[in-house]
Specification:
The protein is of the alpha+beta class and about 450 residues long. The chain has 4 domains: about 35 residues; about 100 residues, Efflux pump adaptor protein, beta barrel domain (Elongation Factor Tu (Ef-tu), domain 3), CATH 2.40.30; about 60 residues, Beta Barrel (OB fold (Dihydrolipoamide Acetyltransferase, E2P)); about 120 residues, Helix Hairpins. Helix content is about 40%, strand content about 20%. The strands form 3 sheets. A 6-stranded antiparallel β-barrel has the order 2-11-14-13-12-15. β12 and β13 form a beta hairpin. α3 packs antiparallel against α4. It is elongated, with a radius of gyration of 62 Å. Keywords: Coiled coil, Membrane, Transmembrane, Transmembrane helix.
């Protein structure tokens, strides 16, 4: 209470001081009429001998009385327009200051408690879980391309259509391919006929060779016998006293032996010719057989081309990015469309500092941004043996210059177990937030 009285007195003194500076007191008006009992004008004022004291007239507006000590100051400070001095501020309420102090203390304690709770939660979470938002749905997208040239006349699928293995996606005009297949079939028939002729020629040449070899064998026997007979006649003629063998017999025997030797030589020549004929016929047979094989390959290729006229799906999935229409001309290698497989998985790029505790088979909680209310479950399938930047087209070269260490990221393959991802419109490239249970 004493402090309030003192503040009110100080404020009253400041108001008086400010009022005196702004509004000085007006001098008392002079009157021409003098009261009968008034002293003359040149008479000294009474009490002049007590000192030179100036009487100050009372202001026109009396000073307001100070409020009671137990009443708080509520009026606004007086305005001092034109003086340049700020108005006096009222004294602050102690209760307001107490409330403000308590509010600041409460806010400070709340911030400290929230920070401590967040730190404790983060510490406990980081010990048992590893999570990253650098993760995406991935899969082995199949690019469907034409395997033969031609004009499309039936594109039988549309965007996002479900297909199964063997589903016909498009067809190519078959007329040209069918004509090429017919030509290949005709060439194969001709080659097979030529092979049969070659086989017959080989048989004839072989039979001739066999006959020539038989004749050669007979000639060899005849030559040997006649030569032995001539040699015996000559031996008997040279013996003394043997007059049974005449000179004519010896000459006839020798002549017969010479003829037999000539026949043997001719037989050998005929055999050699027959052997050469067999070799020639065999070569023609092999050539004809090779032509048959070539014709068979051409026919097989033509049949494969006919089969390629019908473009079919090799996997189960959904059609995407159809780039052709009926009437489009395609060539081998031209991409027609893509098929997103049902066998999708998650590729999560974890920091290398997070890999401790991540093992194949560890359970994973998966949240797909497109379906935040669905709890997907999966497991770690494998961890790539190498950071992603090591497989870049232009890998970093840190051998020269200044080195700045950057935490690398390692791809981790995560397989989705349940629910079946085929029941949701999910495809490669969609954002995922996987959370791996460490040490499980």
């Amino acid at each position: 209470m004493t402090d309030q009285i003192t503040r009110f007195e100080e404020r009253g003194a400041r108001e008086d001081h400010a009022r005196d500076r702004v509004d000085p007191p007006d001098p008392a008006p002079e009157t021409t009429a003098r009261a009968p009992d008034a002293p003359p004008a040149d008479a000294p004022p009474p009490g002049a001998g007590e000192g030179r004291r100036r009487e100050v007239p009372e202001p026109e507006h009396p000073e307001p009385a100070a409020p009671p000590a137990d009443t708080p100051a509520a009026e606004a400070p007086p305005s001092h327009e034109g003086t340049g001095e700020p108005a006096a501020q009222p004294a602050a309420d102690p209760r307001a200051r107490t409330r403000r102090r308590r509010l600041l203390l409460f806010l400070g304690l709340s911030v400290v408690l929230l920070a401590a709770a967040f730190a404790a939660y983060y510490f406990l979470y980081a010990v048992h879980y590893a999570s990253t938002d650098d993760a995406f749905i991935d899969g082995k997208i199949v690019r469907v391309s034409a395997e033969t040239s031609g004009v499309l006349f039936d594109v039988s699928v549309t965007e996002n259509q479900r297909v199964e293995p063997g589903t016909v996606l498009a067809r190519i005009d078959p007329r040209q391919a069918n004509a090429q297949r017919d030509v290949a079939a005709a060439q194969l028939s001709q080659s097979r006929a030529a092979l049969k002729v070659a086989d017959a020629q080989v048989g004839e040449a072989q039979a001739t060779l066999d006959a020539r070899r038989s004749a050669q064998n007979a000639a060899e026997v005849a030559a040997k016998n006649t030569s032995d007979t001539a040699d015996r006649y000559e031996s008997l003629a040279h013996r003394s006293g043997n007059l049974a063998i005449s000179q004519q017999d010896i000459e006839d025997a020798r002549s017969t032996a010479d003829q037999a030797a000539a026949d043997l030589a001719e037989a050998k020549g005929a055999t050699a010719e027959a052997e050469a004929a067999v070799v020639g016929a065999t070569a023609q047979q092999e050539q004809a057989a090779a032509e048959v094989k070539a014709a068979e390959a051409q026919l097989a290729d033509a049949e494969v081309t006919v089969d390629f006229l019908s473009v079919q799906s090799r996997i189960a999935g959904h059609v995407a990015q159809v780039a052709v229409n009926d009437g489009s001309y395609v060539a081998p290698g031209n991409q027609l469309m893509a098929i997103v497989p049902d066998d999708l998985y998650v590729t999560a790029n974890f920091k290398e500092t997070q890999l401790e505790g991540i093992e194949p088979g560890a359970p994973v909680d998966i949240r797909i941004d497109a379906f935040p209310d669905v709890d997907f479950k999966g497991h770690v399938d494998s961890i790539q043996h190498g950071a992603g930047q090591a497989f870049a087209i232009l890998p970093a070269q840190n051998a020269t210059g200044n080195f700045v260490k950057v935490v690398q990221r390692v791809p981790v393959k995560i397989v989705i177990d349940s629910p079946s991802i085929a029941d949701y419109p999910v495809g490669p490239g969609m954002s995922v937030v996987p959370t791996v249970h460490l040490g499980s």
